[in-house]
Amino acid sequence: MEQATDTAIEPLLTLPEFREVVKVSRASMYRLIADGELGTVKIRGRTFIEKNELRRFIEAHRSPEKDDDPAESTGPSVTTSAGGGGGDAER
């Protein structure tokens, strides 16, 4: 009697499919692989990327959430020097 497993095997992505999803150049993709930032699976000389590796890669490169700091959300601040500054405006 076979036992059911919780992990289903998802289809593997080819390297061109990965590039299409992530929108990176061929050179950038190979650099990610060489630097160990992107894990691959090799089968009979062909290189694939698991979908869970794609998810992990995206999470690792996700921009951090913005703080709720009101000072950062008000936009750029404007400061003036004492004495009116303006120089050219008075001419």
Largest sheet: 3 strands, antiparallel
Instruction: Determine the number of helices (DSSP H or I, runs of at least 4 residues).
Output: 4
Number of strands: 3
First and last CA, distance: 94 Å
Radius of gyration: 25 Å
* Order of the strands making up the biggest sheet: 1-3-2
H/E topology pattern: EHHEEHH
Query: What is the overall silhouette?
Result: globular
Structural class: alpha+beta
Stretches where pLDDT is under 50 for at least 5 consecutive residues are none
Measured by DSSP, the beta-strand proportion falls in 5-15%
Q: What helical percentage do the residues reach?
A: 25-40%
Average residue-wise pLDDT: 80
Write a structural description.
This protein is α+β, with helices and mostly antiparallel strands and 91 residues long. It has a domain at 10-61. It has 4 helices and 3 strands; from the N terminus they run E-H-H-E-E-H-H.
Structure in a nutshell:
With about 90 residues, the chain is α+β, with helices and mostly antiparallel strands. It has 4 helices and 3 strands; from the N terminus they run βααββαα.
